[in-house]
Amino acid sequence: MGRANRSDGDVTKIKILEAAGELIAEKGFAKSSNKEIAQKAEVDLATINYHFGGRDGLHRAVISVAHKYYLDANELAKLAENDIPAEDKLNLFFRTILSKLSGKKNWYAQVFAQELLSPSLQLADFIQTEGFEKFYLIRKIVSQVAGIDENSPKILPCMVSIVTPCMMLVVAGQRLPHPNMFSPIMSMDSTALAEHFTKFCMAGLKATAMGNRHGSN
């Protein structure tokens, strides 16, 4: 009985998250009332408090799910521990993200873009918990690929150079009307686009690493 109850609870929680995500993506958090979310999810209003501790908790959970869709901490941890050549590791990082940009629009991208362009208080809370974990994992991966110490001041600019193009495509692909200047890129095969980003970034990382070594001599 307990297992069945837990399963029912998980299903209800997912229904609420999906309903909230779709409404927030369409209208924004401020204009998406708990009542609307409960009606869309076909659940009792009180279940939002039960599963998420209130409205802010639900919003934070929606942000977490949207962020996880593109950057999953478990996937990042596995990649960080994967003993493969540097270029292959960077290529896999790009393919993991870019493969999720194709297909029809979804609420994950809309919510992700909203938080990038207009950060909420719940995003700040997310960053303090899950966000920092992912930051350190990406820093570790970039350090491995570049051959530069994780604590070097040159690592952060390298991270920004790698992650920013992907984030820009998430925002552009979901918020700009089609066709637009990014449409040819969005229509590219994700494997080919990942290959381009890999070659481009590897050249920059190698140049940075070389400059780092020369600077330390």
From TrEMBL:
DNA-binding region ranges: 33-52
InterPro entries cross-referenced by the UniProt entry: Homeodomain-like_sf, HTH-type_TetR-like_transc_reg, HTH_TetR, Tet_transcr_reg_TetR-rel_C_sf, Tscrpt_reg_YbiH_C
GO molecular function, one term: DNA-binding transcription factor activity
Keyword Transcription regulation: yes
Keyword Transcription among record annotations: yes
Keywords: DNA-binding, Transcription, Transcription regulation
Stretches assigned to the HTH tetR-type domain: 10-70
Domain of life: Bacteria
Pfam families in the record: CecR_C, TetR_N
Protein name, as recorded: HTH tetR-type domain-containing protein
Organism: Acinetobacter gerneri DSM 14967 = CIP 107464 = MTCC 9824
